[in-house]
Design goal:
It is a single chain. This protein is of the alpha/beta class and about 450 residues long. The strands form three sheets. It has a ten-stranded mixed sheet. Strands 5-1-6 form a three-stranded antiparallel sheet. The protein has 16 helices and 16 strands. A hairpin with a 5-residue loop joins strand 15 and strand 16. The protein starts with a strand and ends in a 5-residue tail after the last helix.
Length: about 450
């Protein structure tokens, strides 16, 4: 066996400008982050910039081989990267997302939806249940997601479907998981109990800043405020739901005003939820996702690099409330859109089948019949799962971050606008790596 090694093509060195040096490997993900001791930083830089490294018993060389930062000189890493993609795309979990309704009780200023009062019909509910009944044994698990509009407007459908799916999965001995994305306004005591009974344990709720900012940005349908009620509902979960499987992600869609208020906003959330490990914090920039409403806040949208300021603040001030969800981006396939998964289907309230959560006819790849039969355009389905890889950037093949994005962050761009090339480069990867290192207290080498 050769004693010659070389640096992994997926290594990245990150300097935090405070004499700390971190190493991250996108193939290894969060587990591939280490902090390098000050007295070995120069040696580490030299090793990781070398074309050939001889294994000679040096302690740092041995550690870097052990950690996967140095690999045999003739090792084909790109083959491993390809396997990551195929494993991700062909994941044997059946993942179904149902839009229980296209109606919503909010009128958020950046929302692109064209709301109507459509609630999922009994025929679509029966079709989904029958599809699972016919096919569940082909999969290793079922993950059911509830989406909208505001999905809790259709909580009767959630309850009806869930009870049947839980029974089907139990009889088939297939694990069942369920989650919901909601604005939180209808997460009342009664509805939370109904959801828990339906084994909906994972909640994602959006709170856009402090009360004044949130109530301006996430407006109730009649124009009234929403912040107080959402916070009260989350506090009920915190204080009264003892189920240890429950998790609640608080999502903040950031605008310029929210960045200004970040210290007070984060401290407020931390004071309320930071001592409960079931709660976490997720931050994203508000974008122009289409429609006319977002034009109201164009001047308040963040520049492309301003999220770095948000992460930098969290690096320096993170307390009990962690940003675990953001950090998943650093894992292998962590920045890949889930629409690339072969066994993930979005079902609209009208029974149309899509790959993207956005209820747009342009995203449709088929329809669901009441007997549980899915009629799919297999070519369109293939475009969503693998077609985007045929239009990768010239630089993607050698990008050290490529195990995270696998150039599949938004396949919609390839399917709907093939003239646009989409790069999945994680613009804030430096801040995320440092945040992950501090969150997980990584090993020092």
């Amino acid at each position: 066996m050769s004693n010659l090694y070389r640096p992994s093509m997926f290594n990245l060195l990150i300097d935090d400008n405070a004499d700390n040096l971190y190493i991250y490997n996108s193939y290894l993900g969060i587990n591939g982050i280490r902090r390098i001791k000050k007295d070995t930083q120069e040696q580490a830089k030299k090793l990781l910039n070398s074309k050939r490294v001889e294994r000679n018993g040096d302690a740092l060389v041995e550690k870097m081989i052990e950690c996967g930062y140095l690999i045999p000189i003739d090792y084909d890493e790109k083959c491993d990267r390809e396997q990551l993609f195929y494993d991700y795309v062909t994941d044997t979990t059946l993942n179904l997302l149902l839009h229980t309704t296209e109606a919503c009780n909010f009128r958020c200023k950046y929302c692109a939806l064209n709301f109507n009062n459509t609630v999922v019909s009994d025929e679509v509910c029966d079709g989904l249940v029958n599809f699972v009944r016919k096919n569940v044994k082909r999969y290793t698990a079922l993950h059911m997601e509830w989406f909208g509009g505001e999905p809790l407007i259709g909580i009767d459908a959630i309850e009806k479907i869930s009870k049947q799916l839980i029974k089907i999965c139990k009889e088939a001995q297939v694990p069942y998981f369920s989650s919901i994305t909601t604005n939180g306004y209808l997460l009342t005591e009664e509805n939370v109990k109904r959801l828990i009974d339906c084994r909906v344990f994972s909640f994602c709720v959006t709170i856009d800043g402090l009360k004044t900012t949130h109530d301006n940005q996430r407006v109730y349908i009649d124009g009234s405020p929403t912040w107080d009620r959402i916070i009260s509902n989350l506090e009920y979960i915190r204080d009264n739901v003892r189920n240890r499987y429950v998790s609640c992600t608080i999502r903040g869609n950031f605008t310029k005003q929210m960045v200004n208020d970040l210290p007070e906003f984060y401290n407020t959330l931390n004071d309320k939820f930071g001592f409960d490990s079931r709660f976490s914090f997720f931050v994203r920039p508000v974008g122009d996702w289409g429609g006319d409403r977002v034009k109201q806040i164009y001047d308040n949208l963040l520049a492309s690099n301003q999220m770095q300021d948000v992460y930098q603040y969290l690096i320096e001030n993170q307390k009990g409330l962690k940003n675990n969800v953001n950090l998943f981006t650093l894992n292998p396939c962590g920045a890949v859109c889930r629409s690339t998964k072969k066994n993930r289907y979005i079902i609209t309230s009208k029974g149309k089948i899509q790959k993207c959560e956005s209820c747009s006819p342009a995203n449709e790849i088929g329809y669901l019949k009441m007997d549980g039969t899915m009629h799919l355009d297999n070519h369109l389905a293939a475009m969503w799962t693998v077609g985007h890889r045929r239009r990768m950037h010239d630089l993607c093949d050698s990008c050290p971050l490529s195990c995270s994005c696998l150039w599949g962050t938004c396949p919609k761009n390839t399917v709907l606008t093939p003239e646009i090339r989409n790069c999945g480069y994680i613009t804030e990867y430096k801040e995320l790596v440092i945040l992950a290192a501090k969150t997980y207290n990584v090993e020092i080498i």
